[in-house]
Amino acid sequence: MNEIAVGVSTGGSATMRAVRWAAERASTSGSTLRLVHVVDESSTLVSRAAASPGQATSEAAIAAEAHLRECLDQAAALALEIDDRIEVVTTLERGSPVEVFERVSADAEMLVVGSDWHGGRRASRRRVLSLRIAAVSRAAVAVIPDLEPGERRGVVVGVDGSHISDHALAFAADEADRMGEPLIAVHSWDVVAMVGGEYGYGAPLIAGDDLARAESEILDAALAPVVAEHPGLEVVRSVVAGDPVHDLTEAAAGASMLVVGSHGRGALARFLLGSVSQGVLADLVAPTIVLR
Question: Which residues, including other chains, have CB under 8 Å from residue 256's CB and lie 6 or more apart?
């Protein structure tokens, strides 16, 4: 479906940045913008008041719900300031936020959530919730940091030669082409892990130069179809022996966007992100899109 769904909280700059980012994207893609606030019935004033007898509590519940709808209206007004041609739909849902956004994401091309988790600060409930929503989303999920946009340029993507990485690379190339910005492809590899050095064997058997050459070939092979499909696209290659999370966040510090594929695995894969995607979301430096 040609729809971008946005999680809207009860205000704050993180939510408004997410709404603005999604509205700008909807403006260029022609997508419907669905603004969703979820009333967590296990903990909200609305549910507690509705469950309690008495006129005062009922009035409190009505006032609380009116405030939530006002927050949705404010978000919609901001979106229409970006482009008054955007079709904006507001939805007030009840239930578990994670379950609701999993369902909503099934009918969306992208799910957008705001997060104030960046710069190594202590995790708030909102930051943790954004990770949980990203893990269950059935669509691409964009996590927008509460940071000033500034002068940013480039679309950074992590490349490791896997199928999900190829998917992320193709997506990032399309985005870079659409935005008229360079594609910055980062292939980061850990030489110690590659040669088994952490276990005390293997390192003498493989020369570092040979490994570097092999890793560079992985990036070249992944980029070949992208370059062929986007002949005018500026591509910046980066092959780094280091930690992927550190290298990606460093490359994306001044970028417009970071794109990663998620390698959640095992019986709980539906609820988990891979270590790299989880790592970059835990230290947001740019709008970050996770593909599964």
Answer: 152, 153, 154, 155, 179, 181, 286, 287
Domain with CATH 3.40.50.12370 in the chain: 155-291
Provide CATH 3.40.50.620 ranges for the chain.
3-145
* Amino acid (one-letter) located at 76: A
| Strands 288-291, 140-145: pairing kind | antiparallel
- Kindly write down the DSSP assignment for every residue of 154-198, as one continuous string: -EEEE--SSHHHHHHHHHHHHHHHHHT--EEEEEEE-HHHHHTGG
Decide if 126 contacts 227 (C-beta within 8 A): no
Tokens matching residue 74: 């404010």
Which residues 6+ apart lie within 8 Å of 21 measured at CB? 112, 142, 144, 287
* Sign of the Cα pseudo-torsion (42, 130, 168, 170, in order): positive
CATH class name, domain 3-145 = alpha beta
Q: In CATH, what class is 155-291?
A: alpha beta
What is the helix, strand, coil percentage profile of the chain, to 5?
50, 20, 30
Give the pLDDT band (50/70/90) at residue 81. Answer: very high
Name the average pLDDT for the chain: 83
Q: Three-state DSSP class for 259?
A: strand
Residue 198 has pLDDT above 80, yes or no: no
The Cα 54–Cα 48 span in angstroms is 12
